[in-house]
Design goal:
By secondary structure, the protein is an all-alpha fold. It has helices spanning 2-33, 37-56, 58-105, 107-114, 122-135, 137-154, 159-176, 187-210, 224-254, 261-296, 300-327, 329-337, 344-357, 360-376, 381-433, 438-463, 475-498, 503-520. It has one domain (2-515). It contains 18 helices and no strands.
Length: 522
């Protein structure tokens, strides 16, 4: 568990930097362009290659590749694992290259597939098509990054992969300041995406060279590892990508609402993913190699222990984060976005969507970790089937709630669907492995909920002292938000310790051990 916490700490440190830069990026974008038809067009266009990235690249490919790579290395040695990596690189880049070409060619149809409501505004549809075509090569770049990340993570290296997204955010921020050089100005953001993709790929290469890993082009689909990877990849693609598919469904529905609602959903989702990406996904990413090694060694007891401790640590972080987002939704949105062309009504709708998204944070984190455990066991079918059910629930609820609550209704639909998905996955894993420590986990989660509830009440009371219609223009608002966040974290930690929780001790010991390992390095 200490090793996973150390790895998660490395990933979380860089991811925190990336998410902070991402928040700054969004502030820059909305300050410059507001929540308008142009930003709606950009976010839909950026979503399209990003969804394909999740389908064929970053999440699913790494989740399927790491267990097969480690199993091949254990069975066939380093040379067999290297051959598998070479074949995977070649096949993936050929396939993604073809998808990139087709995506750029049929960009207009893809925009309508993702946002049919744009058909009512030919200018917005044309802009979204232009931006989609310009950004599609990012898919090829980020797929190469994803393969490098999988190799580095499988070899115990997490820093360079975790740091890569920072470069994307920096590139978009930098190009946004030169928007007047472009026509239309929002095209500057698309160019920033491409520059960021090149920078991310370049960052991975030195780490691979230090490991002596230099992927070579070779198309070997007859390798046992390649055949197994292909067999696992299809369900893994759907299982891990379903959250993004659900977001697409919501944006498709939001495209029929007045201009700006896609941007409101985007902002709320980004704020929720700040915590999700920094902590929950970091733990799942760090746990996957250990889970895969234990599964390859048929050590079910160790695997169950790793899963249970990882899930307890995940809930320790996501439960208070969800409560904090509900309690501080209006202050957070106000301070981050209420300036430039982003207006108080925009902030109000975004805050409502964030409140509706927040409960789903815990469920999304559970889904990610349980799905990774299934993938470590070479079972990608079960998560895919459950993900399909969640997708149907999300779409049905989204349609039902759209007319009643606008963006907030769509966000609530996703939270409910993801909660159902988490419960079904936990039940399926228990049937597969037997006892997985759910009773101790429930008691720990009750402790987390108790501490988080008290913390939420305290920070909500503090937030009532602010004048949030003024946004960051009133310095007191910024100070109050910082005090609420810092004070809330401290209060939650103290309450967990008072309730006999030991998660802080585990994190502290892992941090000290990480520090000792750094001191011991030559």
């Amino acid at each position: 568990m200490h090793r996973i916490a150390r790895r998660a700490g490395v990933v979380a440190s860089f991811t925190m930097g990336s998410r902070i830069l991402g928040a700054i990026r969004d502030m820059v974008v909305f300050h410059a362009f507001g929540a308008t038809a142009a930003t709606d067009a950009f976010f839909v266009a950026f979503t399209i290659p990003n969804v394909f990235r999740r389908l064929v690249g970053e999440g699913a490919l790494a989740a399927a590749f790491v267990p097969v790579y480690l199993e091949t290395r254990q069975r066939e040695g380093p040379q067999g694992a290297r051959s598998l990596a070479d074949a995977t690189f070649t096949a993936t880049l050929l396939a993604v290259g073809a998808i990139t070409a087709l995506g750029a060619l049929f960009a207009g149809g893809l925009v309508l597939l993702f946002a049919a409501g744009f058909a009512k505004d030919p200018a917005q549809l044309a802009l979204a098509t232009l931006l989609t075509r310009a950004m599609f090569p990012y898919l090829l770049l980020i797929s190469g990054v994803a393969l490098c990340m999988g190799l580095l993570n499988a070899n115990g290296h997490f820093a360079a992969p975790a740091a890569a997204p920072m470069l994307l955010n920096l590139a978009i921020i930098g190009l946004a300041y030169f928007s007047e050089w472009f026509s239309p100005p929002v095209l500057s953001l698309a160019v920033g995406v491409l520059v960021g993709g090149v920078a991310q790929l370049a960052l991975q290469l030195p780490a691979l060279l230090r490991l002596g890993i230099t992927p070579r082009p070779t198309l070997r689909l007859d390798l046992p590892g390649t055949r197994k990877l292909l067999r696992l990849l299809g369900p893994a693609v759907f299982g891990l990508a379903v959250y993004q598919i659900n977001i697409i469904v919501l944006r498709q529905l939001a495209s029929f609402l007045p201009a700006g609602h896609i941007s409101y959903l985007y902002n709320a989702d980004r704020l929720m993913e700040l915590t999700l990406g920094v902590f929950a996904i970091s733990i799942a990413t760090a746990a996957l190699p250990s889970l895969s090694q234990q599964a390859a060694a048929a050590d079910r007891g160790a695997l169950v222990g790793t899963f249970a401790e990882s899930l307890r640590l995940t809930n320790f972080i996501t439960v208070p984060a969800a409560v904090g987002l509900v309690a501080l939704a209006t202050p957070i949105v106000s301070v981050l976005y209420l300036h430039g062309r982003f207006t108080p009504p925009d902030a109000e709708v975004t805050a409502r969507a964030l409140i509706a998204f927040a409960p789903g944070l815990v469920a999304i984190a559970i889904v990610r970790l349980v799905a990774q455990t299934f993938y470590a066991l070479s079972d990608t079918r079960t998560p895919a089937l459950i993900a399909g059910a969640a997708l149907v629930v999300n779409a049905g609820l989204g349609v039902a709630l759209l007319g009643r609550f606008d963006s907030a209704g769509l966000a609530a639909a996703l939270s409910i669907a993801t909660g159902a998905q988490a419960l079904l996955l936990l039940g399926a894993l228990r049937r597969k492995l037997g006892a997985i420590g759910l009773r101790p986990l429930a008691l720990a989660t009750l402790r987390h909920l108790t501490a988080a509830g008290a913390m939420g009440a305290a920070v909500a009371a503090l937030a009532r002292l602010g004048d949030w219609q003024q946004g960051p223009a009133l310095p007191r608002n910024v100070l109050l938000l910082v005090a609420a966040v810092v004070g809330g974290v401290a209060l939650y930690g103290l309450l967990v310790v008072a309730l006999k929780g030991d998660e802080l001790r585990l994190l502290r010991e892992a941090w000290r051990e990480r520090g000792r390992s750094k001191m011991a390095m030559p």
